[in-house]
Model the fold of this input.
Amino acid sequence: MQALTGLGVAGLGGLLAWGALDIPSDAGYAGVGPNFLPWLVAGGLLVCGALLTLQALRGGWAHVEAPSGAQHGDWSALAWVAAGIVVNASLITHLGFIPSCALCFVLAVRGLRLAEGKAAAGAAALTQAATDLLLGAAIAAPVFWVFTKLLNISLPGLTASGWL
Amino acid sequence: MDITTQLLAGFATAATPINLMWAFVGCAVGTAIGVLPGLGPAVTVAMLLPITSQVEPTASMIFFAGIYYGAMYGGSTTSILLNTPGETATMVTAMEGFKMARSGRAGAALATSAIGSFVAGTIATVLVTLFAPWVANAAVQLGPPEYFCLMLLAFTTVSAVLGKSALRGVTALFIGLAIGLVGIDQITAAMRYTGGVPEFLDGIEVVLVAVGLFAVGEALYTALYEGKSTTSIQRSGRVHMTPQEWRRSWPAWLRGTAFGFPFGTIPAGGAEIPTFLSYATERKLSKHPEEFGTTGAIEGVAGPEAANNASVTAALVPMLTLGIPTTVTAAIMLSALQNYGIQAGPQLFTNSADLVWALIASLYIGNVMLLVLNLPLVGLWVKLLQIPRAPLYAGILIFATVGVYGMRQSAFDLFLMLGTGLLGLGLRRLDFPTAPVIVGMIMGPMAEAQMRNALSIGEGRWGVFLERPMSVALLLVVLAVLLLPPLWRQIARRA
Done:
């Protein structure tokens, strides 16, 4: 995992270097142009990536603290939470802020409960989801009103009324 | 105008009902999010950044400062009762504070941390009042080469010195710099790393990265790894100290303040070093060394808490006078100022004197408010800890959506937020520090501009950095900061 991360960092550096090829270099008085920092960062990431890989292959990174939590991840729980954000991102302009966030809440809360081993199954899952939908809406609605009515920040609504 | 008149004028501005309201709401919100796990002051300020489009600058800076301060008070409460430090700076508090709570002295630990924070915060605010105008005066003489060297110093300390591993810190810094590169170059308007995506032209918002890395990353991490972890809340009991506890606390508060303030002011920030130094000192000086690490020693809470608060307050000095942030929250407050078109730096004290002095005055007011909010009302905040984890983190995602979407009304940003959330998840799991990412992303473009301006002054010669005494001195400090710790370690190993 550590070696792969090192390679990933180096890969990112490579990607930045490839992108830096397209950046013009007209330097003006400064002697360095807009492509200077990109090359520097690309080089830096390549070096860091190489060193990280080297350290990993030589018995692991220095001074790593064991991460908190479980040894193995609960990937399905993660997928539910991530799905919540994706659904929200894809629907927010169509459904409006409140319904879209409530949906996100339902999916994310299910993922987090799954991780805790407390998610309801079967028919109970539906009642749970319905309650969560209401709870999510109950959190999102006041937030929406405070931001749109009080602070005049534009958030998408389902209707033009400004309340939903 | 001398400092007293300006400070009084600041109080006049800060004490208007509307600004007092902002300060109070900021302190209350700050305490609440400090108590709740999963949110820190940086994320909260980031999520509320959209209000900068509607609220006037002074009010919003007072509000953000209240959050910044309040979150520290709240964070100590959680560290003591739950042993889950929200930030690295409160890690030390958790060490002794939680042990005190377990042996039934949570009330005394909470009291010494709240009163200590108040004492340190107030002393530090007085020092900021006296010190900041002086630094601003001196800073007027700095040119682009000096600024660049100062930023280089901040980069070095944030990434290479403060963390456990210089290599991972520097990697995180470069990732932040890379994120900061995306968009249109400030000087020549060349497009960099936009990949033809119009959303990338304006660059990536700081809010998005901060919220993604911290709030979303935390929610994802909790779902993936923390599902089975359990925590036990200790009862707080009555918050008060016996006369003997007072006697043991106050010298620790003063020593903690003395450690915290200088570390906060130098652009090498971070509250971690002073809190650890204070802890080590208290442990050495204590007449009750047997309590450390066993039943919990009150000095071990009092000192580090004061150090933390003093250094966080002191971080306002480089932020306001030089425009250099040394903490993540300061970095985000700086970008709030940028949203108003206000450039932090030495000119801030002349161009926006009202704002600066109202902000400083509000710090005095905020400290008093927080003491009131946290001593008698601590039971109220502790109730927040009973919110179950699942709806709490799912609810945080809703707030994250407001902050990120509200910034520029783009659903594309929400996808990016998920991306940075996954990055945050990876960084946390693999033990990379996250602060260098934010600092690199915010200061990267600033440092690049200063560097290119400096080179223009020197007509393209790099020697310009070596021809000015101040910039040479700063470069030497950078070298010392880089080379001394490993050397010192070598010597210590040999001895």
Q: What stands out?
A: Residues 96 and 156 of chain A are 5 Å apart (CA to CA). Chain A has a mean pLDDT of 87. The longest helix of chain A spans residues 123-150.
